[in-house]
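Researcher: For the annotation table, I need structure tokens for Head-elevated expression protein. Please keep the output clean. Sequence:
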Amino acid sequence: MLYASPQSAAEGTDARAGLGPSSYPNPAPSAASVFHGELPLTSLQVRQEKERELRENDIYWTKRMKALEANLKQTNQVLEKEYNAAVTDVKKRFETSTVRQQLPPCQDLKAKVIECYRANPSETLRCANEVQQFTDCVNLHRIQLLQQRTTAENQKQ
């Protein structure tokens, strides 16, 4: 048998029950525990502390949300102002060009070209004259549009 101390060896008793890991005797816990430093918190105090922390957290997030909403409002105002400026700019640029509800030019010549291609599917060079007339008509129409735009721009200035 192993004895924990010379005294227990002399007495023949095993004193392991009161020994710690380093073979020193552990004192028996006293009935009245002594706390050094802060007193233990009661459940009421813990609850009050947590409620205070929650209130502080609510205040923080309320302020944060208000700041974000103000920033969003300011951003929306800037974007709306820029959008309105862009709309005004587009209206100024295109106020002279009226939407015309008319057919594209040279429809009769286009029909002749299509008719010629259908009549001569394997000999498309036979339609060269019709294609040339259609191309000339389209180019003439483009020139007229460019002249109209140039005249309108010169009148603005």
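Researcher: And a one-line annotation?
Model: The chain has four helices and no strands.
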